[in-house]
Amino acid sequence: MDIEKRTERIKARFKDVFSVDGEDITFVRAPGRVNLIGEHTDYNDGFVLPMTIDREIITAFQARSDGLISLHSYNFSLSCQFSLNKIEPERNASWANYVKGVIYLFREQGIKLSGMNMILEGNISMGSGLSSSAAMEVATALSLQLLNGFEWEPIEVVKLCQRAENEFVGVNCGIMDQFVSLIGESNKALFLDCRTLNYQLIPFLNEDLRVVICNTKVKRGLAGSEYNKRRKECEEGVSYLKKYLPDIKALRDVTEDSFEKYKCFLPGMIKKRCQHVIKENQRVLQSVAALRAGDLNKFGKLMNESHESLRDKYEVSCPELDLMVEIAWETEGVLGARMTGGGFGGCTVNLVKENKVAEFEREIFKRYREKTGISPEIYVCQAGKKAGKIEIVPVKIEEGR
Ligand code: ADP
Ligand code: MG
To answer: Is 126 in the pocket of ligand 1 (CB under 6 A)?
Structure first.
C-alpha cells in the first residue's frame, strides 16, 4: 500500500479515536531493519552490518494542552492514556511501553514535553527479528522532537531509544537496531562498530541484485532465555581468556591467532560460543571489504558461513530456519543465505539475482510448505525511506468541466 493511502487511513482513524478534525497532524516514519551479517556480535563489542528495509512504523501526532499522552495502536486497535507526570510501565498494554520509555527518558533528561495524541501504525512483521520495536522507539523520539521543537544529536537519540527498551521494556538488546533505524539509508549496508559507534554507509545493491527476507513464521520461543544464556557464556569466555590475555575487555579484542593458541583452556561449550563470535567479527570485516570491491559472490559465501556457525557453534538456529536456508542454497541465482536476528525462529536473509527472484520465491514457498505445512512470508526488499518527517503532498483534485 502506498504512503498516501496509509496516511489517509491513519488520519481517518485519528479522527475516530480522538474526535478531532485532524488537520494539524504531523506524520513521521522509522524503518525496520535486516541484519546482513554479524550476528550475536553486538553485545560482544563487535561489528555488525545491517540495512534498513522498506517496512516502517508511522506515527501521526498532534499536541494537546492537558498534559496527557493518548496513544493508539492502529494495528491492535488498542488505546492507552497516561499523564506526563506519572509514567510507569504498563502491565496490560506492553506495546505502549516502547513509547512510554522514550517519553519517560526524555523527561528524565530535563526536556519539557507537551501532551499529545498519537497513533502508531506499522507494516513490519512483529516479533520476526525485523525490529518493529526499535522502529517504534525511533519514530516516537523523532515525533517528540518535532512536536516539542528540540533537536538532539542522532547518536544520543539512538542511545536513549536503546535505554528505553533496556530499562522500560526490560529487553536487554544491543544498540544496533535503534542505530540503523535512525541512521541507516536504503540500499546501503551500515557497517557499525558497536564499541566506538563509528559507522560507515556502504552502497552495495544494484538493479541486478535483491535482498529477500523469508519469514519461517516460527515464533522465537526460546529467544529470551537462550539469549541471556549466550550473553553469559560469552562473558565467561572473556574471563577464562583474560588469564592469558589480560588486556582484553570483550571477545572483540581476541584475534583469531590468540584464540587458536588459548582455546584449549576453555570448556567445550564456551569454546564453541567464543569461536562463533570471534570468527563472525572477522566475517563482517571481510564482508565490508568484499562489498567495497564489488565482490558479491564472496559476500554471499560469508553469509553462508555465518549460518553454519550460528547453527553448529552458537546453536541458535532451529529446524525451520535450517530448512529454509538449505532450500535457498540449492536454488539457482542465490549468492548467499543465512538466518538473521537472534534465532530460534524468525527470518532468513537471502542475496538473490534479480532475474531469479520469482523462481526463488516459488521454490521457497513450495518446498518449505511441503515439509513444514507452514506458508512462509516472502518479502523482496525495495528501496525504502530514511527515518524522518513524512512530507504529505496534498492530493490535487481535478476540476470538472
Ligand atoms: P521485533 O522488534 O523483532 O519486531 P520485539 O518483540 O522486539 O520484536 O517487538 C515487537 C513488539 O513491538 C510487539 O509485540 C508490540 O508490543 C510492539 N509493536 C510493534 N509494532 C507495533 C504497532 N504497530 N503497534 C503497537 N505495538 C507494536
Ligand atoms: Mg525488537
So the answer is: yes
